[in-house]
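Study this chain:
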Amino acid sequence: MTRRTLIVICAAALLACSAIALRPRPHAAQRLALQQAVSIGQTQVDVKLPLEKKSVRFAVIGDNGTGESAEYEVAAQMEAYRKVVGYDFVTMMGDNIYGGHKPRDFELKFETPYKPLLDAGVKFYACLGNHDDSNETRYKPFNMDGQRYYSFKKGDAQFFVLDSNYMDAAQLEWINNQLSGSTAKWKIAYFHHPLYSDGRFHGPDLDLRKQLMPMFEKYGLNVVLSGHDHVYERFKPEEGIYFFLVGNSGQLRYRNLRQGSGIMAAGFDTDCTFMLVEISADRLYYQTISRTGQTVDSGFLQRQPKPQAATTQAVGQTR
């Protein structure tokens, strides 16, 4: 073997080793997710919902899209509960994808952690958070159909999905038309920034509250869901409306809740969570579950009486 031949062989070997080294390693969160899913699948879930016939059942997540282990572990709990509860859609409170928004980001921060749910036919309905890209409206699995705000119906419930990043006049008019024309038994709005919050880091969006609450009260909105503060909180009714904050399905601000505000009915700020909801007749049942499978809040809410308001024809996207 000549010296020249030996040099060529060594160079080829080095290039091959470099190519192997440059291949992306399996994401640590993905490996953990597989282990977690197996572990959770072997344990018995603690369902607090009644699972009544013909009820509407869904999950709620917020501030989830990190691609880190906490998101994957919450997603594994969601799949374990889906197998028993049978919910078929998920509402997303925004900050769906943190950081980059390349195809690989969508894979690591959404498609992989929620793959068992997606494979089971569960649909996700997203709203935009302050860390989201507006192009997410065209990402098919988020079911936004290119719209910043939209509505959809499930059984006795109509959902109004808003963009709280930019509450312009056109959106406010759309909300008014949608709410005034809705004949749904349960009217549920969700968006990223909370109107009420005991989170120390962000707290409530008071300007947004001034814009939205008059319409919510006038047209008898039943429930508001939001995220943004990385905690879980359920509030005492405000102007007859039920409020939930689920902003810790991937992110967490440990011990970030203020105590003693007078508006909190329940709070949890020591781990990540998601929430299950079941709507049956005049009751809304809820169960909030931590990353480790602990039920941190559960109960039911009675549907409020409808306000005496005129009903007009709805205008806008409803599907």
In short: Confidence is low (pLDDT under 50) at residues 3-26, 309-319. The chain has one domain: 56-302. The domain at 56-302 is CATH 3.60.21.10 (Purple Acid Phosphatase; chain A, domain 2). The CA atoms of residues 92 and 126 lie 5 Å apart.
